[in-house]
Inverse folding.
């Protein structure tokens, strides 16, 4: 059965039917999925039950090289999900209870409410991310996306020219502090050093130009701090205007796949002291990493 894509936004994003991600991904369906992602950048697939951790890992690995190393963790964080490939995007501690207000781990989780692209702070960037919904709050907690291909297309030609050749410095701890998190420990900072990426790149499979932004950008290489921050704010404000943005309302069993090289995204607020939200993310990388 061929995939069917139902557009969810005038510019990008689609709901996909004709696939069950509990099953292995064959070569023909994989090609259709990549084509759908090149067109829509964000695709949602519904299921009557969440993927198992193993099913999510297997499906992600079929899309490209995976991030498989144990991600450097915030100090004090235990392991709730015993798989190196899965990033725990919940508000739950290792014992399954909700983080208490004031917990530094919760502060870092809330920083995901800023616009970002997954793993832009790594030299080998994230490509496809898969987020699987196990528990969703009864209100709030949507994920918002913005189409950075359409954003680039809409920039004035003079701005496009000005951006040519500029390089952003992406730092994980910069965005965590912007989001209200505490200063990182020396061990935490060493675990995630900054990475450099062009502000504009050509998408590797669709060939479209993309404005590559993220809250992780601490500055522009070679620019004074004030000028860097002013430019990034100007571009962020432009990129997150309502016409470019799609908000996804989650249901248990949903899996949303997005292309980090074509979009930005952010979590939205919910009552994280009252309601559980259990979301699990896997991420592919631009190339295989050698241990």
């Amino acid at each position: 059965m061929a995939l069917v894509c139902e557009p969810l936004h005038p510019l990008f994003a689609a709901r996909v039917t004709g696939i069950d991600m509990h099953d292995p991904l064959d070569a023909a369906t994989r090609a259709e999925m990549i084509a759908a992602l090149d067109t829509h950048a964000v695709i949602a697939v519904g299921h009557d039950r969440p993927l198992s951790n193993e099913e999510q890992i297997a499906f992600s690995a079929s899309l490209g090289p995976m991030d498989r190393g144990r991600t450097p963790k915030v100090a004090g964080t235990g392991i709730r999900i015993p798989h190196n490939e899965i990033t725990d995007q919940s508000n739950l501690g290792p014992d399954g209870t909700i983080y208490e207000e004031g917990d530094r781990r919760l502060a870092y989780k809330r920083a995901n409410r800023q616009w970002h692209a997954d793993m832009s702070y790594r030299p080998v960037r994230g490509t496809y991310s898969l987020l699987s919904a196990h528990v969703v709050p009864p209100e709030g907690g949507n994920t918002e996306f913005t189409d950075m291909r359409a954003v680039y297309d809409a920039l004035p030609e003079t701005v496009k020219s000005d951006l040519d050749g500029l390089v952003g410095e992406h730092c994980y701890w910069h965005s965590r502090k912007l989001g209200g998190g505490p200063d990182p420990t020396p061990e935490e900072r060493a675990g995630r050093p900054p990475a450099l990426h062009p502000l504009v790149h050509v998408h590797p499979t669709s060939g479209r130009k993309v404005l590559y932004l993220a809250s992780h950008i601490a500055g522009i290489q070679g620019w004074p701090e004030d000028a860097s921050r002013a430019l990034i704010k100007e571009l962020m404000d432009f990129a997150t205007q309502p016409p470019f943005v799609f908000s996804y309302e989650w249901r248990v069993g949903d899996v949303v796949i997005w292309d980090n090289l074509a979009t930005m995204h952010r979590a939205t607020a919910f009552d994280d002291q009252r309601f559980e939200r259990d979301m699990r993310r896997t991420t592919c990388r631009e190339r295989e990493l050698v241990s």
Remarks:
- The first helix runs from residue 27 to 40.
- The chain has a mean pLDDT of 92.
- The chain has eight helices and 15 strands.
- The two ends are 39 Å apart (CA to CA).
